[in-house]
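Minutes, methods subgroup
Present: GH (chair), OT, SY

1. OT presented the first of two proteins processed in the latest run. Sequence and structure tokens recorded below as shown on screen.
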Amino acid sequence: MAIRSEQPTASDLAIAVDIADRLLANIESVVQGKREEIRLVLTALACNGHVLFEDVPGTAKTVLARAVSQSIDGVVGTRIQCTPDLQPTDVTGLAVYDQRTRDFEFRQGPIFANIVLVDEINRAMPKTQSALLEAMAERQVTVDGVTRAVPHPFLLLATENPIEYEGTFPLPEAQLDRFFLRTSLGYPTAEEEMSVIDDQRVVHPLESLRAVTSISEIEVLQRAATDVYVDPLIGRWIVDLVRSTREIAATSVGASVRGSLALERAVRGWALVHGRNYVVPTDVELLFLPVLGHRVVFTPSKFAEARQIGMAASLSAFEDECMALAPPPALVFDDSALAAEVP
């Protein structure tokens, strides 16, 4: 894993942080009380990643996706409502015969957009879910032997309903691994819920939401994220943590090298949206489960435990096991050298 040692200049960092702060404030005016979750989405945007929201209905997942799209001038946002009869060509597009030109003309599907909301992705058939893989991993779509690039920037936000499984198709592990982050928004507090009711009394806040940044500024944000400094000690800890997921008894399949790459990228983006040009160990601890929790396959006994104590508690125990096997780096002082200096 290559770790860049260059640090951005103070002016570059200030510009990137200002872009992230403007996006955060604009989106937070619509999605209240979810500052850290919004920062996760901005982290994915800064790192060219994709986000899977696993949450109950009515927690502003769709509103968040629309708010991100409307906050960036010049981007195209689309929504794919997944159903069992949704076909791959409904996502990617297809060639249509044009009688005027007597030739086939390609009609782009909704995947050709900057911000793509895939609503209830687990309701689509596996072959339709697979149609998203190439765009997510390689930022291109191949139809009838012709490869076409998706627009830049490209952010896919997928939602998954964890309470209804009838008529659904769970995402396979290989596809879950393509998501940069997995998170949930959860219900707001009572005060925040009252604010939501007041804000939507006359008109939805999305109706008045305006763009606060541009595509060119998003590119600045993404370049700045690649320059955030990761100390070699933290870089090695990231690798050790990912490797620990393959060694503990709770998992039958641990995270792949893609997990190491994602976690290293994620902590850089997370540091940037918090106004820092360097990564601290706390960043790794906070992003461990959002980045790696969906990239492992648990053993049947671990799933049985999750049914008893809840998935959140089970994941927390999983994190504790990995942290115990790969503890964070600590400062080591050479006592002999200090003793030699004492007269």
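2. SY then presented the second protein from the same run.
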Amino acid sequence: MERLKQPRAIVTALLLVLLAVLPLLTQAFDQRYLLSVGTRIVIWSIAAVSLNMILGYGGLVSFGHAAFFGIGGYAVGILSAEGIQSGWIQWPVALAVSIAWATLVGALSLRTRGVYFIMITLAFAQLVYYLASGLEGYGGDDGLNISRSRFGIIDLRDKAQFYWLCFALLCGTLWFCGRLAHSRFGYVLRGAKSNELRMTALGFPVFQVRLVACIIAGAFGGLAGILLANEGAYVSPAMMSWVKSGDLIVIVVLGGIGVRFGPLYGAVVFFALEELLKPFLDLLHKGWGEYWQLAFGPLLVIVALYARGGMASLLRARE
């Protein structure tokens, strides 16, 4: 009961309730655009939760995590272009491809450490990026317009239904990753982050645990890519650029590294600042809104200096 009274628990509960009823609120106040913003927040939160699994709990800084956005999205897009519209086929195939790629990248990159791990994950992401750019039959650099997946019971063309599906998947992702982080597996992963040599000496299979963590992160990253492709009915190589990977890292750091709901806090703050800074800068000077990151950068520096645990650290109970 004491835990439920903590500021972080209260804010998290209120935030989840707000997100759960967002379609109803946007309809009541005739602010349909906010539903699109909310959908992006939920989808990016799923991707950030998957990155937090290896970055927050495992201490593995991947600078190519957005590749799973593109892999999941392009798997759906290519199947759609070939006439396969069923989500019951598209989604499992997209997840299988994401898992296969995560296994390959993890098996190779985990043999390195530090900046070498960062550069290898970036190199693999750029490989996928340029591969997608060269797929002239599927739009190349221009991307590919697709039809949304069909399930029969759920109409993904209905924005409210699609949002609730994304929100349900986010809740499932948060629950699964939270349970995993507090399991024996999660403790080994976090122990390896603190002292890899000691965990190895104790007999724990550190490499295998990290590889499984990378595979799980890749699967959820691919899921986010599937949802992102269906959200805009469009896929392009830009989905997997290094800039998107950087945005994911910023979201995780902004929310709180290694905190279960940290990626959700980070995504909400990230997209809220984007939506607020753009019109504010345009008011100061027409066209400045396009460069909203210039104003966002100093805010991120302030967070790094005075809230080193991200937004989650600001919600801790004070003694």
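Chair's summary of item 2: The radius of gyration is 20 Å.
Next meeting: continue with the remaining queue.
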